[in-house]
Design a protein that fits this description.
The chain has 181 residues and is α+β, with helices and mostly antiparallel strands. The protein has one domain: Beta-Lactamase (2-Layer Sandwich), CATH 3.30.450.20. The protein has helices at residues 6-18, 60-66, 81-96; strands spanning 42-47, 55-58, 101-109, 114-124, 129-137, 149-159, 174-175, 178-179. The chain has a 6-stranded antiparallel beta sheet, sandwiched between helices. The longest helix has 16 residues, at 81-96.
Length: 181
């Protein structure tokens, strides 16, 4: 089982508690007072169509890291072009299953300073469609020296949930000297 930062895991657990019968929670069920300490790191995305995920709300840390409120910006525009399709595929899969997905990224400034982050994307039920998320720094934010994030470089994507648990490994067996499985 993969271990995420405790804040990321806390919001994954919160999302699971709100959901019922393998369904994602509804947007109106999310109560920021239940994670007030993390509110500056939280964001909300809309989903207009595959590949169009406008930022609806962004906490103080999120806007500070980008030096931009981000409202209305397509989330995919924050990623390197070569990473956008992978993230889009992960978000669409997370929406259909429904399960959260965690992206491990490098947040890069104009002059190349980098900050590792976990980005949580958790789908919410209802119309219009939404994703609830978290920016979780994995190092001191001061590494950016107050320079805004220019783009994200995707490191890894991990679905979170039963459909993504590791399956048993196939083992080879022999019978009379012949491989049979």
């Amino acid at each position: 089982m993969t271990r995420f930062h405790s804040n990321t895991q806390r919001l994954i657990d919160y999302w699971r508690e709100l959901g019922a019968d393998s369904r994602p929670p509804r947007r109106e069920a999310v109560d920021p007072s239940h994670f007030a300490r993390l509110a500056p790191q939280v964001f909300m995305l809309g989903r207009i169509a595959p590949g169009l995920y406008p930022v609806r709300l962004a906490g103080g840390l999120v806007t500070e890291l980008h030096a931009d409120p981000l409202r209305g910006r397509n989330l995919l525009s924050l990623f390197r072009e070569r990473d956008r399709f992978l993230l889009q595929t992960a978000l669409e899969t997370a929406r259909r299953r429904p399960e959260p997905v965690v992206a491990t990224v490098q947040a890069v400034t104009e002059d190349g300073a980098a900050l590792p982050l976990e980005l949580l994307f958790a789908p919410l039920a209802g119309e219009p469609e939404r994703f609830f998320g978290l920016y979780q720094p994995l190092a001191m934010v001061s590494r950016l020296d107050e320079r805004p994030i220019r783009e994200f470089a995707l490191g890894a994507l991990q679905g979170v949930g039963p459909a993504n648990e590791e399956t048993p490994r196939l083992r080879l067996a022999t019978l009379g000297g012949r491989r049979v499985a």
